[in-house]
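We include this case.
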Amino acid sequence: MTLSFAPPAIANPQELDATLRHQGYAVVTPQQVASLAGIDLEILQAWRPLWDALPPDNYLRDGGRYRRRRHACFVVEGPRVTLAPHRPHWQPVEYNALHGGMQRHFEPMAAALVAQPAWQQLLAWLGLVTSALKGRNTWYTEAHQFRIDTTDGIGRPTPEGAHRDGVDLVAVFLVDRVGVKGGETRVFDAAGPNGQRFTLTEPWSLLLLDDPRVIHESTPIQPMADGGHRDTLVVTLRAGNFQGEPAP
């Protein structure tokens, strides 16, 4: 197995599409996220307190209490972003062996976030990235606010282990990281031996994943101070329909 421990080369903004096509993933700096999405970085950073009011995830099958989250669905068609009726999150067991096959009902994301023009602009940009990679389409988009804390002494960002999500593109934004160690990101070729491991540390840095091509996971976090936690925003985009819905 070829496994690199060094941080991957940061995608040049002008080469983002080519980087995704070449290696199946790309890491984007916060400054590049803001520039590419056309959003002031200070606006993104101002969203951080919205992660302080996430309700517990009551579906953890490992018995843990370390995850809090909110969830919302959108339909992205070019520049148009439409909030879809609130629905449960569902994944097949083929993609989530731990929590797949069941409907998980999470509290919706706050209107204070999803009604903002900058939020809709961020999703529209992710839709453009996905269309550049997969071809122009309507993107059925799910957004998840996560807080992984160290209530139990250890927090697991991906308790299901290394996995794919069954979508076309996955976007993982690091929103905040406070008083923890660990949380290393690992990305592996789905059909080969190569892999990368690195740690996102800067708020609003972004990992983009061509989901059919790569498998990903994040290692557990441990506390370095009271109240240690790791906040992320995960957005998935999928052609055709939301997972769990019949094809049109």
Summary: The helical segments are 16-23, 30-37, 41-45, 111-114, 117-134. DSSP finds five helices and 13 strands in the chain. The two ends are 41 Å apart (CA to CA).
